[in-house]
From TrEMBL:
This is Prolyl endopeptidase. It comes from Vanessa tameamea (Kamehameha butterfly). Residues 541-764 form the Peptidase S9 prolyl oligopeptidase catalytic domain. Keywords: Hydrolase, Protease, Serine protease. GO terms for molecular function: oligopeptidase activity; serine-type endopeptidase activity. Its EC number is 3.4.21.-. PROSITE patterns: PRO_ENDOPEP_SER. The keyword Hydrolase applies. It comes from the Eukaryota. It catalyses: Hydrolysis of Pro-|-Xaa >> Ala-|-Xaa in oligopeptides.
Length: 769
């Protein structure tokens, strides 16, 4: 898998987390002051007043008044932009820590005062407590699979010597930390299945350490590979060496709480059972410090496929002939195949013969819906490329995997639903597998293996894992290997449907609507509108306990529009929502809200907008532009300062979707919708008050650093201080957590409890037992 795809799938995985979401005693009033710089005014609870939010518990609070430094002004192409909360960009400053504490001190009482908090938490915990499995996958002569018994903080990796044999624990991340905040993040087995390389992440950071385990003994080798982030891992076919990407020159902290830009990633080679200090750099691009380097060893073992990326789309393509370097001791000679960042190229397979230089790639070069092509590495001129599976006119080729020596499994997305096909390696369609309306969320199979597993899920199906043995009679008939059941969930009581609505410019946009059957269409039901709209990411049907609680106990409606900017309809759909077209994303989301209200699924005062990461940007931009459309907003780990995002950690990679303020044209466009720069105080005449808003971030989020959320909530609270804003505008800053990946189950349940409590309090909706 190319690094471009690694980052994209990484984003997709970490975006999905957002989809799954005794009597209270007020704490002592806390007076937070800073006599030197008057950082805060008093923070205290007091009785309702005409200018304060009348919370259900009949108590209100003053927002922390963060210091404004009016001297910080940037000049963007002749336009002066003030940035009074620049000091909040320093996560280690005592001033920043005090602001975070003050925000949590007013948010926690509001959330904890929810009279049904215990009921919500108990129900989430009860429903979450069901066994969850991944597809089994075979490495060497053993099978492996992940399992969570229900409420374990981290999934456990099991091993078994046959599908009918008793599984045993191979790696349990829950034993690595008391609070479950150390998580498995990436892994790779050697071809013989005897050595296991695995990454560990702490507190949700993207930084990992790579460890190496002997599969037979279960013991780790002594070396630990550090300063690793956004890593490719690929073993050489002799099973003795690991190619991996790292940032060896990164200085200062590397725990996820830093904000420095990640620069100078290098591809290294580690020989098993040697110290990391002996590792050699095999590929680097010193004149391109922001490139990230993906690498994959070909199925035949002869070639190292190298795919540098600089953003979150498009990659170059190189290869090294490893047969010419039997002992790897330094830089590998590279042959370049693709010279321009203009398309994606993802290695799929090649023939197992060591003399086979013809490789299959998935690409969107001249094919917005993607296709499969053959490139001869020893004759790589573009005019010699051959099409194996042509682009489909409407369906998007999402991925391809080689199986059973001479076959390919292809996954398409058709109107946001999964389609699974079997092709010959020459491209011929052999079979289409029957699927209900839903998504393939897991797959395992390798070229040298005669079986596959795939995992199906939908809004109303918690999970079914299918198994197919290619030695069986044709046409192949997959069998159910394992089906997941959730106690207390009866799918027959719910319905999921897909509709198409018109956006502002007339574009037809699909949207899934899920709810109990026979809910009244009178605008009385609360609704949750979840969106993303970026980076070529698809929002396909998936099962969510949090959504189930919302539907089951609040009679809620869940709506998921597949807005432009995503990849549901290929690069055309993606391009229609990025760069100068970004406003289409917001228009699509707002049109979805208008549709739900017009069709009387809900009303604006009962509608919650939710999104995480790029989806956090979406929600924040929409409540700036159309505050009256929503009753509440959940802004999770959002990208909110669109003029400076590229200056922190991996933010520079997002320029492919957003553009950069360094460019005048893009600056003008970014300034129009940047959430931080478009906050407007309500006046209840021409400008409605903001919906009740909960901004969530975490101290170890080194993907979208917390400064985005901190600056936004500070500016938002400042703007409404003298306005008729009555609804709460709050921030929840978590500790020992990051962007969402690897978050322990206990923290997930706590966070989703808080989100549902916020909606309960803010909208005045009822939890029905």
């Amino acid at each position: 898998m190319s690094n471009c795809m690694v980052v994209r799938r990484f984003l997709a995985y970490h975006r999905r987390f957002s989809a799954n979401f005794a009597l209270f005693t007020l704490p002592h009033n806390k007076l937070i002051t800073n006599l030197n710089n008057t950082l805060f005014t008093s923070v205290k609870n007091r009785l309702c007043s005409a200018t304060k939010y009348a919370a259900p518990w009949n108590m209100v609070f003053d927002y922390p008044e963060a210091r404004r430094d009016e001297t910080v002004v940037d000049d963007y192409h002749g336009t002066k932009i003030a940035d009074p909360y620049r000091w909040l960009e320093d996560p280690d400053a005592e001033e920043t820590k005090a602001f975070i504490e003050a925000e949590n001190n007013i948010t926690r009482p509001f959330l904890d005062s929810c009279p049904v908090k215990k009921d919500i938490h108990n129900r989430l915990t009860e429903l979450w407590n069901y066994p969850k499995y991944s597809c089994p996958f075979k490495r060497g002569d053993r099978y492996f699979f992940f399992k969570n018994t229900g409420l374990q903080n981290q999934n456990v990796l099991y091993m078994q010597k046959g599908l009918d044999k008793e599984p045993e624990v191979f790696l349990d991340p829950n034993t690595l930390s008391e609070d479950g905040t150390v998580a498995l993040s990436g892994y790779r087995f050697t071809e013989d299945g005897l050595t296991f390389a695995y990454g560990l992440s702490a507190s949700g950071s993207d930084w990992i350490t790579i460890h190496l385990k002997d599969v037979v003994t279960g013991k780790d080798y002594p070396e630990v590979l550090k300063k690793v982030k956004f890593a490719s891992m690929a073993w050489s076919k002799d099973n003795k060496g690991l190619f991996y990407s790292r940032y060896p020159d990164q200085t200062g902290k590397t725990d996820g709480s830093e904000t420095e830009v990640n620069r100078d990633q290098k591809l290294c080679y580690h020989r098993l059972d040697t110290p990391q200090s002996d590792d050699v750099i095999v590929v680097e691009f010193p004149h391109e410090p922001l490139w990230r380097i993906g690498a994959e060893v070909s199925d035949c073992g002869r070639y190292l496929i190298v795919s540098p990326v600089k953003d979150c789309r498009d990659n170059l393509l190189f290869f090294a002939d490893l047969s010419k370097t039997p002992v790897i001791s330094g830089k590998l000679p590279l042959t370049q195949i693709v010279h321009k960042f203009e398309a994606d190229y993802e290695y799929v397979t090649n023939n197992l013969s060591e003399n086979s230089s013809v490789c299959i790639f998935r690409t969107n070069k001249n094919a917005p819906n993607y296709k499969l092509i053959k490139i001869d590495l020893h004759n790589p001129a573009e005019e010699n490329w051959e099409t194996v599976v042509p682009e489909h006119p409407t369906d998007v080729l999402d991925w391809a995997s080689p199986v059973d020596n001479d076959k390919l499994v292809l996954h398409y997305v058709r109107d946001v639903k999964s389609v699974l096909q079997l092709h010959s390696e020459s491209g011929e369609l052999l079979q289409v597998f029957d699927l209900d309306v839903g998504s393939i969320v897991g797959f395992s199979g390798k070229k040298q293996q005669g079986e596959i597993f795939y995992h199906f899920m939908s809004f109303l199906t918690p999970g079914i894992i299918y198994h197919l043995d290619f030695s069986s009679q044709k046409p192949y008939k997959p069998t159910v290997f394992r089906e997941v059941e959730v106690k207390g969930f009866d799918a027959s009581q719910y319905e999921a449907k897909q509709i198409f609505y018109s956006s502002k410019d007339g574009t037809k946009v699909p949207m899934f609507i899920v709810s109990k059957k026979n809910l009244p269409r009178d605008g009385s039901s609360p609704a949750l509108l979840y969106g993303y709209g970026g980076f070529n990411i698809n929002l396909q049907p998936s099962f969510s306990v949090t959504r189930l609680v919302f539907m089951q106990h609040f009679n809620g409606i869940v709506a998921i529009p597949n807005i432009r900017g995503g990849g549901e309809y290929g690069e055309r759909w993606h391009n229609a929502g990025r760069l100068l077209n970004k406003q289409n994303v917001f228009d699509d989301f707002q049109a979805a809200a208008e549709y739900l209200v017009a069709e009387r699924y809900t009303r604006a005062s009962l509608l919650t907008a939710q999104g995480g990461s790029n989806g956090g940007l979406l929600v924040a931009a929409c409540i700036n532009q159309r505050p009256a459309l929503f009753g509440a907003a959940i802004v999770q780990v959002g990208v909110l300062d669109m003029l400076r995002f590229q200056k922190f950690t991996i933010g520079h990679a997002w320029v492919s979707d957003y553009g950069s303020s360094d460019n005048k044209t893009h600056f003008d466009n970014l300034l129009k919708y940047s959430p931080l720069h478009n906050i407007q105080p309500p006046d209840n005449v021409s400008r409605a008050e903001y919906p009740a808003t909960l901004v969530l971030t975490a101290d170890h989020d080194d993907r979208v650093v917390p400064l985005h959320s901190l600056k936004f909530i500070a500016a938002l609270q400042h703007a409404v201080r003298a306005s008729p804003q009555r609804r709460p505008l709050l921030a929840r800053v978590d500790t020992k957590a990051g962007h969402g990946g690897g978050k322990p189950t206990a923290k997930i349940i706590d966070e989703h409890t808080d989100i549902l409590c916020f909606m309960t309090q803010a909208l005045g909706i009822n939890f029905e037992k």
